[in-house]
């Protein structure tokens, strides 16, 4: 089980999202892949934050990864995203995202992130969470927010395509994205091709 990325996102409805603070552990990728993987983690973090309605949680699978998204909305208009492998369990993932948002709101004044640059807020706890909760039992033992979690619908999507708008394709989004370098776009297409040839039905 592995968490690759954790992020707090400013997610105003109907507008472009901004990643306020993030942490990642890409040590399982080769040195040459890490830049492209980091760009794609940020790309999916923003895309899924924009496409998760306020007050909802959803889990979205893309290739061998699952992004767990909690768009809390409210006055702060914040979302949190955790990208992990498929083995990382859903309940601890959402417990961690709830804890992350609670701590962020408690420790970072709202005025500081209303006009923040991408990644511009220092929130050292996010690195601690990324390391500590690699073991999902830590999140489950400490977090007891199951009652709140049960009250809120979690939407599980099989693929990223099911999150996109009708007729919209992930490959088109990738091609149009200004946030991704040409190298990252080629990396994505190559990885997608390699994964598609190996699917077992």
From TrEMBL:
Signal peptide: none annotated. Pfam families: Longin, Synaptobrevin. Residues 141-201 form the V-SNARE coiled-coil homology domain. GO terms for molecular function: SNAP receptor activity. GO terms for cellular component: Golgi apparatus; plasma membrane. InterPro entries: Longin-like_dom_sf (IPR011012), Longin_dom (IPR010908), R-SNARE_YKT6 (IPR045848), Synaptobrevin-like (IPR001388), V_SNARE_CC (IPR042855). Residues 9-130 form the Longin domain. SUPFAM superfamilies: SNARE fusion complex, SNARE-like. It is found in: Cell membrane. CDD domains: Longin, R-SNARE_YKT6. One of its GO terms (biological process) is endoplasmic reticulum to Golgi vesicle-mediated transport. It is a lipid-anchor. It comes from the Eukaryota. Keywords: Cell membrane, Coiled coil, Lipoprotein, Membrane, Methylation, Palmitate, Prenylation. The keyword Hydrolase does not apply. PROSITE patterns: LONGIN, V_SNARE. Belongs to the synaptobrevin family. PANTHER family: SYNAPTOBREVIN HOMOLOG YKT6. This is Synaptobrevin homolog YKT6. It comes from Cristinia sonorae.
